[in-house]
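tool_call: predict_structure(chain=1)
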Amino acid sequence: MTAPMRERDDAHALLAAEVERARAGTGRLVLLRGATGTGRSAALEAATAHANRAGLRVLRARCSPEDTALPFSSVLHLLGPVPEFADVAPGGEDRGSAARLWRLLRSYAESTPLMMAVDDVHLADEASRRWFVEAARRIDRLPVLLVATERSQYDIAPHPAGLAHTLSPSLVRTHALAPLTDEASSGLVRAAFPAAPDRWTADCARAGAGIPLLLHALLDDLDGAPPPAAVPTTCAALYPGSYPAAVSWWLDSAGPATAEVARTLAALEQAAQAERTEREERAAREERAERAERVARADRVARAERFRRTAAPADHPAPRPSRTPPSPHTAHPAPAAHTERCAENGGSAAHAAHSAHAAPAPHAERCAEEGRSAAYAPRAVSAVHATHPARCTEAATHEDQWGGAAPHPAHEDQWGGAAPHPAHADHWGGGAAGHAVYPGAGGAAAQAAHEDQPGGVAARPAHGDQWGGGAAGHAVYPGAGGAAAQAAHEDQPGGVAAHPAHGDQWGVGAAGHAVYPGGGGGAAPAGPGDGLAALVADACGADPARVTGWFTAMTRLGVLRPDASGRPRYAHPLLRDAVLGGWSTARRQEAHRAVAQAMLRRGDHVDAVARQLLGSAPACLPWALRVLRDAAAVAAREARPDDAVRYLRRALREPLPDDLRQRLLTELGSLEYAGADVPAGIPRLSEALDLPASPRDQVRTAIALGTALAGRGEVRTAVAALRRLGSRLADGHADLAHTLQTASALLSDQDQTVRGEAYRWVTETARRSPELVGASGRALLVRYAATAGDITAREAMRRLRSLLTEPADPLAEPFLLGTAAAVAQWADELDEADRLVERGLAGQHPSLLHPMAQALLDTRWDTAAARGAYGVLLATHCGPRARRVGGGPSNADAHALLALVETGRTHEARRLADAFDLHDTPDSWELNRFLYARGVLRSTEGDVAGALHDFLECGRRQSARAVLSPVVTPWRTAAAECRLALGNAQEALTLASEELRLARVWGTPRTLGRALRVLGRATRGRRGLQLGAEAVAVLRGSPAEAELVASLLAHGHQLSAVGERGRGREYLREGAERAERLGNVRLLTHAEHALRTAGARRTSPARTGSAALTGSERRVAELAAEGRTNTEIAQALHLARRTVETHLTSTYKKLGIRRRGQLHEALRT
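tool_result:
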């Protein structure tokens, strides 16, 4: 023996006893059984050595499969050269030969006790095996000990019966050699490497898998690289390669069927590990990028702070205490009584006091770097969550981002838990999506064969073209039993929806049940590894029961070990690599294809099937392309653009016709751009635009390319690309050319020069031939007129509602809906704007770039801001990292900045404002909005001159773009208030008068009331009082609650200033109550200050809003909001029904509502 034997004392004791028994004249068969590599031969060697020392004559033979053709070959090797058998031919077995050999053995035993040692008796020829069995029956009266070793290991292919199968237990002693325990394996490692650390020792023991053969081979290879070098995870790092050779021999001993199962399992595990590693590396890259962004942001904040303290520009005098009365833009410390009142609006106790309290370290430091207060607890509001992966997906996965968006769904790997349910939709269309019918899904599907897809069936035809439109059809995948029901995909309308099953990648469904093809709605209970065993068996064409048994046996042996979920894994990555080393890359790819096909047959989730196809080679299989496209669509719907990109890249490796390649390239380019892989995205879109395709597909690609180019600031290039395609389509496809013209005009909003050219062209065309611009083009003209101050809100909505009733091309409809939604928001038709936004977003596909996708989200944020839903704005804000690719702040950033100011969190607002360097920011309307928001922040901080500069710069930029109306940014009234604070009443009067003129043109209460309020402050006197009162009257009953509060406070201050303190206090109290209900800390602080100035203190607790509810009232209200009746609430809380009614009456009064259905929303704000 070349190495010490451990945990074999019982075998040695047995053999020693049998040797003594043979010396006494009584022989027996001793059978040493064990798996390959467990030390059978070593135990036999030890036994022969002991027999030699005891005086026995030892006869030895090692059986080999090469000698099975010659009868009695093993017996002849054992007994030595027998002259009379020298010429025995293969197949010449007879009973006389067996008798002569038996007599020869007896003659040997007459002179001295014998020990016959036969190694690997399972490889002996049949004649020898029968002779050994017969000898075992007779040697009990002879001094002959027969010791044989026999391989006993569970393999996929069943083995013949063992040597002792027909023998009586009294004639044979059988001993099974167990695998080494971890303790014994660790002892062997320490004996070879005494200084090895515990972790290194444990890794070696696991890689040895309890098999002495493998462990000794590994220790031989590691002799040249002792610790502290880590145990390798690949065989390429081992020298001279004893370990992979031993593993290969171990597999060869198990047979080809077992080797294929073992290597298939290794291939699956390796792919899953590679995917986990890729996700971890991606998360690490994102963390590094985020850390770098935080450092850069903190540096910008620090530089901005130093700049404000030491070197303010000439036109920005350093802030100094203001002696003028506080305005609605002036902040004061919030009283402690109000610190909890804004929590429901996205704030916290600390933020209500301007985040004045220091956060505990180290959390405070981290939060300071991130630009938020340590006390801020983000809230996710799904109703306004940005679903497009282009902007918020990556940032939303980190809890420390601005606004704390909802986390990204967990992506289980191929060894993890159940895969997420897909959002069902066709590949290019929006709207309600159908459900895919997979094997085992249960129920019957009405199937209609596609004419151009052999064997293809669809349960229901889809509506709309491939890239857009209505509901997706129901797809049917190949069923069990070799059914060829396949869903058409490549060139059929609609496409294929995603698999609805909730099973994981290994066949284990929701709640731990295996999914069986054809099983209807039933599911059979299964263990964690049963689904995996069935999958591997199907892929290898093996018996599932044998594969399940092999998993169990290998786990008992130590080759496999269950993971945390109970699924079997190889004990160590090095062992897995050695097992897989016998396969070439092509063979591994074939295994992944076979596994994917097996998954498809049994109805696994489409995402799991596609992940297996990622590791396979292109095979020209129609089902493979369908699966990859379906998986890409599901991943895009679930905001997993990285996964969708991987699937599409793999799909493009398949042989494809040009039109299909063009569509896939468009999807891939859009997703790569959305995932911030701009260098890859735009070239793919350009390549797609150059491929032959249908005109509609070309238009979709051109719009996506234009969106990407405009997002990078290359607006002129984007518009030029759209116009080139439009000129080619002008003759035969005028409607598509109109859509491209509309898209050009919309994209031109990013550049004021290009915008002017685009809208002049659209205006002139509409004047000459209105039919040439289409409904969406005319809607853009309505929007242009609204921003230019040339149309009333009523007239604008009338025109747009008329356009919405006209038939619209699916490609042009998003432009019409997005434009109408924006104008409806400006017109304070907020409910209608919400409906239009939801309708427009439903038609957007996440795999395609479209300018209206972001425009609709912007309108959604505008609507939330118009309602004063500050909590919603902050909860759905993805932070500075989520800004558009071209750089600079987004519309969401501007709204978040304003929401932070309104909720009293000026420290956070300052960090957000300083996170952007506006000097090199490209021109855009988002920049103008951010300038306005920063101006509000500066005014609140007391930097009135700086605020005035921002407001005037915003107005200059807006005027250059012909945006004169205050519906977008009311910069004139904001600048007028700054002029008043600086003592320039005449200039303030001029600005306010001009805004009032434009507001009267537009005619909505919001714009009109704001202009009247500021003009009243600038005018003063009796006329000023009249204008202030008119502002309050105009705003009552409108959705502009914040403007009404500001007008109430301004008018109350006016009345108090002229001596009408009683009436003034009434207005101030009403404004304070409304501000409290709205959660506007800035206005509430201003109201508190004004009330104190007027001689009235509001020291009582909150009387309105959700913060004013008592504990009992809140419990009753929450149950009522859930839909409980008064009787049910009384029973649940053990109250009288009359008490419940009293609590609800008080709750309605405090929340300012009248109906039970308003409770849910009122409790949130």
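agent: Residues 814 and 840 are 6 Å apart (CA to CA). Proceeding to next step.
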